[in-house]
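COURSE: Structural Biology Practicum
ASSIGNMENT: Worksheet 4, Part C
STUDENT ID: 0417
INSTRUCTIONS: Below are two proteins. For each, the amino acid sequence is given first, followed by its structure token string. Answer the questions at the end about the second protein only.

PROTEIN I
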Amino acid sequence: MHNISLRNSLIGCLVFFAPVTMAEGLSEQCIEAPKRVYACDNLIYTSIKRADAKVVVCICKPDKDAILSFLEKDSIATQRIMIRKLLAKHQMTKVELMEVLNQIN
């Protein structure tokens, strides 16, 4: 009897906390401005073509302008480093990132 109620309690906890954990995990996979401190509250999903397949990409919509600014004005060394890290983290080229950003209104 105690085992059943304990199991139900554990399942209840998993159902309650799983969406939060999944959302945090998705946010970490999404493209965000390098200086973002808080989790993004407006994620946009789009796709890009790589080789013979389309790949789904997630991006934080409010960060679009900041990322574009980094890409267009890469005269400062720290900005170039941040962009290189962002591209490496998401295994993208600069052209692919520009393509993704241009798909977002």
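PROTEIN II
(use this one for the questions)
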Amino acid sequence: MSAAPAYSHYAQAAPQRYDFPGYREYDRFDSSPDISVVPGSGSRTKSSADSAVVLAKVTAIIMIVIALVCCARVFLSSMAVSTALEAREISSQINDARSDGSKLEVALSSLSNPSFVKQEAAALGMFAPDSDAVLKIDLSGDVVVTDAAGTLLLSGSADVIAQG
């Protein structure tokens, strides 16, 4: 037995090992296969599979868009409802403020009435003074004296008060 390499890096023709008649006609290395190519658009199953994938993608995109539109609609509806509730609350606060203002006007008119003031003063033990006990002070005469420059003269004012 001789030691022959198991493989070689160089291309070599395969050794002929089969010795039956007509082997050469079945030899695939020497003859080209009998295949004829017909140009066309491809098989129908592949195009229908591709169209099914495209249809699934388009359907998924449309469903996502519809879901986003529905979410936006729900968001806008909730914002509208919350705005309406806030408007209703503000309207009730305005009505309360108006009724409180009306009550304060009535209280002001009753408290500023002179007869009510006299009754409350009498309840507190106050009374009106007699007419002869009232002193009247006349401040019509001016006792302030100024010089030509407009400064006040204290001595001149004291002389006017002493004269009377």
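ANSWER KEY EXCERPT:
Q1: The first helix runs from residue 23 to 26.
Q2: The mean pLDDT is 80.
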